[in-house]
Every structure is written in C-alpha cells, then in structure tokens.
Amino acid sequence: MTKYVIQGGKPLHGSISISGAKNAAVAIIPATLLVNGVCRIENVPQISDVTLILNILQDLGADIRTVNRTTVDIDCSHIHNARVPEGLARQMRASYYLIGALLGRFGSAQVPPPGGCNLGGRPIDQHIKGFVAMGADVDVRGGYIHAQARGGRLTGTTVYMDIVSVGATMNIMLAAALSNGLTVIENAAKEPHIVDLANFLNSMGADIMGAGTDMIKIKGVDRLGGGTYSIIPDQIEAGTYMAAVAAAGGEVLIENIIPKHLECITAKLEEMGVEVEDREDAVLVRRTGTLSRANIKTLPYPGFPTDMQPQIAAALCLAKGTSVLTEGVWDSRYRYVDEFRRMGAQIQVDGKVAVIEGVERLSGARLRACDLRAGAAMVIAALAAAGPSEVSNIHHIERGYEDIVRKLSGVGADIRVVVTPDDGQAEASAG
Ligand code: EPU
After folding, report:
1. Which domains does the chain have, with CATH numbers?
2. Which of 63, 105, 130, 390 has the fewest CB atoms below 10 angstroms from its CB?
3. Which one is catalytic: 117, 264, 317, 370?
C-alpha cells in the first residue's frame, strides 16, 4: 500500500506551477473522436484519469503518440468501433463523454455506465434527455448504455436542462458538433472547462457560440479537422494549493493560472483573512495572521465550486469562530468529516450542511482518502496539523493531482511517498 507521510506545522514558501485542468482534459481527449486528423493537445495533466481515458481511446483504435511530458498527438481518424470495452470505462466518471462523442461521430455508441467518486447519486438523465431530443434511442441492457441516432445522424434541437449539469452540457456539445442543424442548450453550465471544450472544438472547425453563458448554440458541421490546442490551467488544483497556504500559513506564488477563474475562491479566502494578489498569470497567496470564519455555499460556476468544498473546510477547521458550509451540488460530500474529527476538528453535519467550530490546532492522525477532493483536503489538514500524519488510499488523489508530493515539497512541506512493507516494497520515493 502506498501512502503519504506528512510532518505538519510548517508554513509553505515558494512557487507552484499549475498543470492542465483535469475536467477539461477528460472531455477534450474524448472530443478528438470527432476529428478527422491529428489533434495535438498541449498542457495535458499527468494524472491517472488522463491515462485511463487515453487508454480507452487506444483500445478503440486511436493512434496516440506522446510528444513530450505534457503534449500528446491523438489521431482517431481510423477508428471504426463505437463499442467501448468494459474494464477501463467503469473506473472513471468522464467515460460518459464517450457516449456523446461516439454518437456524434458514428451515430451510435455502446458505453458501460460510468464510475468515479462516490458523492451520492450521480444520474445521467440530463445527458440522455439531450441525446433523445436530438433523435437518438437510448436504452441500458447487458451492462451497457446503447445509444443509436435514428437515421444515422443526430438532428439539432433545443434542449432545456432541468438542472445545471457540467457533464450533460459538455456531452450534448460533443453530440451536436457534427449533427444536422442547430442545437441550443438552455440553462447550460458555465464552468471554464465548458468554454475550453467549445474552444477546442471551434479550433478544429466546429461552430459553437455562447459557451460560458447559460445558452450555448451549436451549429452542426460536416467535418472537423486536426490542429493544436492547449488545455487551460486547473482552477481546482490552483484553489487546492491556495487553501493549503490558508491552512498551513506562509506565502506561495501559484503560477500558470487564469486569475479570473479563481475569483470565486479568492473572494472567500480574502474574507477568511488570507491575502491574495492577482498577477498576470499567477496569484500570490499569503497567510500570516489568524484565519476568520466564513459561510460558504457551493454552486455551479461562477459560484464557489463544490470541488473546493473539502479543501476549504480543512482551512476553516482552524479559523476563529463558527463557519457554516452548505453543499449545493452533491448529496453526499462530507465523507471526509470523520477523518478530520480524528485530528481534533469540531464539525457537525446535518444533510447538506456542515457546521465547523474552529479549533486552535489539529493534531496529526492516520487518514484514509475517500475520494479525490476529500483526499486533497486531508493532505491540507495534515500540512497544518501538529505532528505526523499518514494519508492512505492515495490513488484517489492521483486521479486528479499531478505530482502533488513534488509540488508541495518544493514549497517546503515535509511530505513523502511511502510504500508500506506489508506488500514487500521499500520506500518508493521521497520528496
Ligand atoms: N445531475 C443530474 N442528472 C444529470 C447530471 C447531473 O441530476 O444527468 C445532478 C448531479 O447529481 C449533481 C448535479 O446535477 O447533483 C451536478 O452534476 P454535474 O453533471 O454538473 O456533475 P458531473 O458532470 O458529473 C463534473 C465534475 C465533478 C464536479 C461537477 C460539478 C468531471 C469529470 N466531473 O461532474 O468533478 O464536482 O462537475 O462541478 O468533470 C472532481 O473533479 O472532484 C469532481 C467530482
């Protein structure tokens, strides 16, 4: 078993460079299925979810060539197979983008139901509603979602989303890019990765307008051709390191980011007494004094992101006063609370609301990551705590954070990767 061993209580100083955005990469990579020619994708994060989605494309027959550490060439021109093999697709959430992309390319898709973090129920009814409105028959049988466009090609229409869904908005964009006519998505999600997917598709020849607003118009085109595209920086990775500085103290320059995407996070950190200075493509984050309490409700963008809720909670555990967190997106995103309590945090959860009574200090403990962002939050709590901690189940964290140990070590954190002797291996690496 591999785990992180963290000696807490050290303020962080230095700079951290942010990688490409996970939730953009896991949509843009499947989007290459729609393209006839080579897509050169730059700023690809080296995380296990990206490896998985690339492996799925390779299994389907894509020609994939690594150009350098963050650049990959993907050519899906020769794929003739719309059935995704079962094993890998069930290990990740974003495999649902294969339905929209394959349906758009072949007029048919057979994809196993997606996996991903356990955050309560994660239906995909809004994705399916969109495909059906565009003329597809969709049913689930034999462990697969089968989608088939009547007449072999989807037809543009207006789709009104009953709830704001990142995944459904992107999936309908994928399905519509090569369809017949105009598709309008109303009540669309507005996250930066939605704009990024639209920019990627447009740069390959699609005709998409309005991404980043709540109405997106996609005029279907006959063909997309190859090109080069660079993925945006990861808003949540940046926010996670900002929260780490808030919790552990110190001063860190977070580089290679788009400060505008971080405004919702910056505003809350400032309310908590953290200094945040915007630079052109960086933010300087400084925390010297005591943290103040804050109330936070997670909402779709530009609201405070649900994917930052556990990390900000780690900092609020050490803030002066009582903070109230309201989870506005997922049914169950407080599974980390029991682990925090073992460090001395005082948190009460009632449904979607958590009340955090700030304490003077947290103490190190053995922690088990239960999902991606919860795992990152445990790392943050451990960095701020007095004494040593261990965080296990780190495969959750490595799904979404490139080189987290190296990046944190680079700003003075005492964090090491350790492989426990029970599986016969010695310490793997230290950072
Ligand atoms: N929902 C439905 N029906 C649908 C789709 C969504 O009821 O058809 C509900 C969900 O149950 C949830 C809400 O709508 O309550 C929002 O879900 P959304 O579809 O926006 O989430 P997602 O596309 O499944 C992506 C990210 C998540 C992130 C959410 C919200 C990826 C691969 N995942 O999920 O990221 O929390 O958007 O921003 O892009 C993470 O990175 O840690 C993560 C969980």
Report:
1. 2-19+234-430 (3.65.10.10), 22-230 (3.65.10.10)
2. 63
3. 117
